[in-house]
Amino acid sequence: YAYITEYTSRAGEQVLLNDRYIDPLIVQKHREKKERENEMRSRGERFFNTRETNQKNQNVTLDQLFGPENGSKKVSRKAVILQGDSGSGKSVTVQKIVLDWASDELYVTLFDVIFHLRCKELNGLSGEMSLVDLLDCCLTPKEIGQILKDIPQRILFIIDGFDELMLSGTKESLPTKPDIKSHPQAILCSLLKGRMMRESFLLVTTRSAAVDKLENILKKPQCFVEIMGFSEKGVREYFQKFFEDEEFSNQVYEQVKIHEMLYTACFIPVICWIVCTIFKRKGKDGVVTSELTTTTSIFVDFVFTLLKHHSSLNQDKELDLLKNLGQLAERGTLKHQVLFSRNSLPKPISDLPNIPFLCTFRQQERTFLKEMFGFLHLSFQEFFTALFYMLSDKEEAKIKVKELLESAGNGRRNVHLLPVIRFLFGLSNKKVSRLIPGEHPKLTTTVIRTQLEKWISKVIEKNIMDAFYMNDFILHCLYELHDRDILKKVMKLWERSGIKIHWSLKGVDCQVV
């Protein structure tokens, strides 16, 4: 846990976590429906440059997540939900928690054991097993079983990436003891519901869109906190840590700060890392272009910058590589899958000695390590899915986008498709589509933009999606598209619909408004 492998690292390259980690802004959340609605109504009054002042009383530090650390007092068991948008730093924060605990700097009086379960890895497990089997680590099954039996109140279970978990719809009976065998997802549900290990602590990370589903499953009492990304001070500190050359760090920071939207996007840690990586690859002569105004444009620039500096492929081969990555991403997105075996990769990708934009994972299965592949970050899988549609021929793209939009309208169970749609809006932006080489994007952009305009108009006219999520989503889509005529049409429909716009307080959201 002391090291991280950065998304663009070569084999064996690692960076000390403490050389990169910046404390994110974490705030207490209130989940009662009335309070949540009131919060949404009042959010629009708060802008990003005053957000730290406004939220001073509700900011939460890592040592406060489970209440006071005091060995002489009995701390009541809590299930803590750490929610946040894609790329806000949830998994890195979890890694920092485990590192500080292992270094005797955090939760020393609370926990003797921490078990870290990653949902994307659990999805790849098959067959029945017990909780003891699932917690396979450096301890023997007998030792794990003894720990679970003797000190359940001194154990923290971290369940990372609940939104990535593939929960079956079957009413399977849940195991109540650590040695009872069942499917991995059933074991996890039993932990979350408190059917077993009820005295233990839980820390669950999830994207915000999956919070309501988690809230219905999770045992009480619950504590909700939201990770908001970096503060302004945090962005500056990240630039200083990322670049070893102080002069270069200051030069890049000042360049980025001039471009307000790009700077605000850096409040999201994964975007901040992408921006810093772009500059590192371009070197001291690199400049911010005026094109980098949307999330999608930042992703596009990152992908083609990396290909330029790390690939010897010609343009046609590069486009073939992107199509194959897109095909893999689409399959994973539709199946709710984020890890892939080498055999399941498209052959042109699996034959490459180093596969760009994919990371290698070593997944423990019983007595051997299984090689698995996943995209740099879930947001990259969503981006490549959208890019695949853009690189497809016109008729194929039209059919696939139609199916995607229909699926996304089928309630909350398909909210994981919304980021793909947002990237599609961004790739339909005329300036952004010009950054992608080849003929297909030019031919498909107009078709897909028409489909997206009809779909977003229908969403507003018929109010077919949950307004709690849709306010943010629709306005972000319109911003990514940057089409004044479509914006006017959609906002007129919105005005006529009578649906009130509730807005959130994140800096990037205010910038979009």
Would you write up a description of this structure?
The protein is an alpha/beta fold and 513 residues long. The chain is built from 23 helices and eleven strands. The chain has helices at residues 33-43, 51-54, 90-102, 119-122, 131-134, 141-150, 184-193, 211-217, 232-242, 246-258, 260-265, 269-282, 295-310, 315-335, 347-350, 378-391, 394-408, 418-427, 430-433, 440-462, 467-481, 484-497, 507-512; strands spanning 3-4, 15-16, 26-29, 79-84, 113-118, 155-160, 201-207, 222-227, 340-341, 358-365, 368-375. The strands form three sheets. The protein has a six-stranded mixed β-sheet with strand order 3-8-4-7-6-5, sandwiched between helices. Strands 9-11-10 form a three-stranded antiparallel β-sheet. Strands 1-2 form a two-stranded antiparallel ribbon. The longest helix is centred in the C-terminal third of the chain and has 23 residues, at 440-462. Residues 31-57 and 69-73 have low confidence and may be disordered. Keywords: Cytoplasm, Inflammatory response, Repeat, Ubl conjugation. This is NACHT domain-containing protein.
Q: In which order are the strands of the major sheet placed?
A: 3-8-4-7-6-5
From the spread of the alpha carbons, the general shape counts as globular
- Strand fraction equals 5-15%
pLDDT under 50 segments (min length 5)?
A: 31-57, 69-73
Structural class by sheet pairing and helices: alpha/beta
Tell me the major beta sheet: 6 strands, mixed
Distance between the termini: 39 Å
Task: Tell how many strands the DSSP assignment holds.
Answer: 11
- Indicate the mean pLDDT: 83
Radius of gyration (Å) = 23 Å
- Total helices: the number is 23
Protein name: NACHT domain-containing protein
Subcellular location: Cytoplasm
Organism: Cirrhinus mrigala
Domain NACHT: 78-210
